[in-house]
Amino acid sequence: MKDQVEALKWIKNNIASFGGDPNSVTVQGYSAGGFSVILHMISPMSRGLFHKAVAMSGSPLGPYPTERNQLNLAKKQAGLVGCPNETISEMVACLKSVPYEKLGNSLSQFYEFGSDPILIWYPVIEEDFGQQRYLTEHPMRSIINGNFQNVPLITGQTEFEFGYKAYYVLGNSTLTLELNNDFGNIAPIAFTLGRSTEHNRRISEALKKFYFNNEPITWSKFENLSNIYADSVIGFGVNRAAKLISQTSDKPVYYYEFSYKGQYSHFRKPKTNETIGAVHHDDLIYLFYIEPIFPLFGKDSPKEVEMVSKLTAIYANFASSGNPIPSNNPEFKGVQWEPYSTKKNNYLDIGHKLTEKTNLYESRYKEWEKLYPLSEYTD
């Protein structure tokens, strides 16, 4: 996170030399990058370095653990790449010398259930040793107390997010059996609840009752398993960010769901090769040319070209004006996207049409609100 702060400082100090405006900087991130964007709004180190924010499919305000150190992970990482971990100084010195490819290739060895946990490393609340601290308190507490940088924000998610992982679990008899036989210990790993503590096991029991009615998890429960993956890893955290930030910020928050089902996707059904709809990262297909995974859209993909035109216009207009909907663009005739409010629970559905709707998965997110009440962060 601190290296990102240095990059933002460089932009502020140098962007004018490239024709940019240092007083109109937009920070945008996806997934872990969306996580980062919200944290930059919170961190005292990032204040004044940007003026608008876009957090796509990522937020630190979900059920994820926030700790004061991750020494256990650091020691495991050291062991995986052949570094000593008896003393911190020796471990750090060795890790600094390890090529990034070797570090990246070791991450799969952190998995404990299939390819879970999805999230391994988290930002920490730093102890005060006289240094600049990126996070000084729990991010939730900062947001609740209004202790963050008020800037216009776009945030949202895709329709299915990580729900596609249900195919991999149910398609693997070993994982399915393990999930059913040891749900209390597996759920915290699979659904980003943190370590398997007694507290998290109780939450796991409540989630099993809510999503599965305490019944065996089989293919008949595919949609339920897909929903809990989507809600736990991305959806609830993003929804909570939209709600809390809109309540304490004097700047607009624009909330969306990307539901456009095109002919391209990062996930296809293993047996039929069909797409299921917009999964995690699928909206990026229409913002950036992702070579060599997807082609450069042309005349043979008119619907994709149309979505590229709309989505790029939304983010470009937001970056330049703070308003996501261009006023004089015929593609957006009749489109309304009002800032989010908890009274309306409104959001923009970005599908084959752009439609403002309300109450996105509200009954599901209310269950998470009960399990992770705000009082835990205010007492």
CATH class of the largest domain: Alpha Beta
Uncertain regions spanning at least 5 consecutive residues? none
CATH topology of the largest domain: Rossmann fold
Record field, number of beta strands: 6
Helix percentage:
40-55%
Q: How many domains in all?
A: 2
* The CATH architecture of the largest domain: 3-Layer(aba) Sandwich
Q: Give the class from helix and strand content and strand pairing.
A: alpha/beta
Number of helices: 14
Largest sheet: 6 strands, mixed
List the helices and strands and how they pair.
Elements lengths: L1 H13 L11 E5 L1 H11 L9 E5 L14 H10 L7 H10 L2 H6 L33 H6 L8 E6 L6 H6 L2 H9 L1 H8 L7 H15 L9 H27 L4 E6 L43 H20 L24 E5 L3 E5 L3 H10 L3 H4 L1
Parallel strand pairs: 1-2, 2-3, 3-4, 4-5
Antiparallel strand pairs: 5-6
Helix pairs in contact: 9-10, 11-13
